[in-house]
Amino acid sequence: MEKEKKFNVKEEFGTNVFNDYTMRQRLPKDVYKKLKQTIEEGKELDPDIAGVVAHEMKEWAIEKGATHYTHWFQPMTGVTAEKHDAFISPTEDGRVIMEFSGKELIKGEPDASSFPSGGLRATFEARGYTAWDCTSPAFVKKSPNGCTLCIPTAFCSYTGEALDKKTPLLRSMEAIDKQELRILRLFGNTTAKKVTTSVGPEQEYFIVDKAKYLKRKDLIYTGRTLFGGMPPKGQELDDHYFGVIKERIAGFMKELNEECWKLGISAKTQHNEVAPAQHELAPIYASNNVATDHNQLIMEMMKKVADRHGLTCLLHEKPFDGINGSGKHNNWSMVTDDGQNLLDPGKTPHENIQFLLVLTAILRAVDLHADLLRLSAASAGNDHRLGANEAPPAIISIFLGEQLEDVLDQLADKGEATRSLQGSKLESGVHTLPDFQKDATDRNRTSPFAFTGNKFEFRMLGSTASIANPNIILNTIVADVFKEFADELEKADNFDMAVHDLIKKYITQHKRIVFNGNGYSDEWVAEAERRGLPNLRTTVDAIPALVTDEAVAMFERHGVFSRVELESRAEIKYEEYAKVINIEALTMIDMAKKQIIPAVMKYEADLACGANEIKAAGVEPSVQLAQIKDIDEQLVALKDAEAVLEKVTAEAAEKEADVAAQARFYCDSVIPAMEAVRKPADTLEFLVDKEAWPFPSYGDLLFEV
Ligand code: ADP
Ligand code: MG
Question: What pTM did the predictor assign?
């Protein structure tokens, strides 16, 4: 037997990252210290150290096998971008040396006029700059086909507008840091220098067989199946969730973990998810910015590693109709540089006034800006999960659990809280099992925004999108309420009284956002409407939230987005939505016309020939004829629906002068036309011989991995 090469996790972890350990080893002490101050305390970067850092980074990367470097950035396409430059610099005698200057580390100019900018940059003024983000460590991407030093960067236009997701994320992190520090000072904390938001995103995904994937144009072009009837077995037995991981999948997961670990990503938890062929990976949480970069890398690695195993990773939010979709749970908290988690209630939350104030701020922020949070998770793909029948509705509410809700009730009713409910002993009824204390609060899996012990879990996010947007929104809305609170409390004569009054006032005002019940029920949709909570069902309904006067004022207050940046982002969202639906519609037309209709016609003709032969033998071909009739009915319906879809898709394409109206048309007219095509096609799948169907079925994709 071939001897397996052992992977030593402790030795290999982070080996492809120019991390703190490596920097401390390689950089001169004073340079290291200065860089650390920027990374940890948010001090301005000293440009003089860039040359030394660049040199050491280059030497380290070359030792790893790198020949190229790239400014790695996250334009508004939602994926990452890189343009590679070799380190080579020619010498006079016709040879080369390997060079990398401080200037090249700090600044790049990708001349990227082809990235979406939402009108921020006309092609004739195409300059865009990338700037080194030293708060996220550089790393090398290694493969048998080359090795490149990747430098995380922010991407801005010539006039300083953000053209990416990182720039506003970093701005929002600075905003929440600044405002939360003001609150901490009021509570007498004089030592904390920085508050960082920490994020642990749980990533869901599907794995299918690559050979089967390649037979489906819809998966290739759109990432989801546009046709397909339910197999006899779906997820109703709940036997996949946490089930034994198949060998082939385990092999994929092992390599994925190793790739992540080498990149310093602490991939921690893996398991089968609810749907067949669905899985999840969760890393240990990290600083918001690093977690965002890591999540992008995790998604990239999932695709690459799956490919090496003859598999394909589907990151779409809803690859299969009628089967659970994939999301990304964004676990979010705020931590001081001296290690205090501001969302940790302690054992007796009713006595923890600072925690209660933070909690009140979050209630207020989420209630005031529910529309923005909803928007932050909106995309054409995620529309199939949110507001659809099985997934959470697109209504934002907060789950707090019994213990905290009880404290808030006391505060709202009596003006003070005197007790915190405690978890009791877990009694299993078996003497040999250990007794332990339960948590004070149970979980609620149906809440879009749930308090889970010492963090909030924002569960609306789709599986494909970057986690940047939801965190930009979350950080900014919370920062804004902290600012409001700090402005008021700093003026107060009696701080204790003022805090108390403020908490009571806003808890009473925003209690409507708290909901501990079943968020998936119809009753909740009706109840939420009574409470006046917004229910923005589609992306197109949600986009206007980004550019309301209140939203613009708030983002500008904290320097996170300017009005033009917001307007450009809204425009990009409309465009992206329209493009996605357009590609889906065209793919559907293509598959219907070139694959399904021809296959069904051929099958029908074969049946008719068979029927004639049977007749010639003197027998009435009643089954054949009945089958032909059923098939033909659906075939006519399919042909008609396909013609309508072609017509409305062409009509939609002509509306490009007004992106909002165009997106609305795709939503209201093209999507229903697509549904009308799908229905007869899915019925036909069950009327036609499996051998005659032109591509793999749901059953083949979901159960035969
Ligand atoms: P769950 O709460 O969903 O059952 P875990 O407790 O394992 O699962 O956490 C899920 C994710 O939340 C992980 O990525 C974990 O690192 C992250 N997480 C845990 N604590 C925090 C925190 N204080 N802030 C942010 N993320 C956290
Ligand atoms: Mg979770």
Answer: 0.95
DSSP 180-191: HHHHHHHTT--S
Q: Which residue blocks in 102-240 are alpha helix, DSSP H?
A: 102-106, 166-186, 210-213, 217-222
185 pLDDT higher than 70: yes
* Cβ-contact 698, 319 below 8 angstroms: no
Ion ligand 2 neighbours, Cβ < 5 Å: 329
Q: 137 and 185 in contact (C-beta within 8 Å)? A: no
Read off the tokens for 481.
């309420």
Q: How far apart are CA 93 and CA 150, in angstroms?
A: 30
Looking at the chain, the whole-number percentage of residues with pLDDT higher than 90 is 80
Identify which ligand lies nearest to the alpha carbon of 455: 1
Verify whether ligand 1 is closer than 6 Å to residue 198 (CB atom).
Answer: yes
pLDDT tens digit sequence for 236-247: 777 888 888 899
- Ligand 1, atom 16, lies closest to the CA of 284
What would the pLDDT profile of 278-334 be if each residue is shown by its tens digit? 999 999 999 999 999 999 999 999 999 999 999 999 999 999 999 999 999 999 999
From the CA of 331, the nearest ligand is 1
From the CB of 331, is ligand 1 less than 6 Å away?
A: yes
Is pLDDT above 70 for 670? yes
**469 within ligand 1 shell (Cβ under 6 A):** no
CB 386 within 8 A of CB 460: yes
CA dihedral 553, 554, 558, 564 (to 10 degrees): -50
Q: What does DSSP say about strands 139-143 and 107-108: parallel, antiparallel, or unpaired?
A: unpaired
Q: Which residues pair with residue 333 across a beta bridge? A: 198
Residue 440 near residue 452, CB atoms below 8 Å: no
Q: What angle do CA 101, 105, 108 make, to 5 degrees?
A: 110
Contact 100, 119 (CB under 8 A): no
**Is-contact 144 117, C-beta < 8 A?**
no
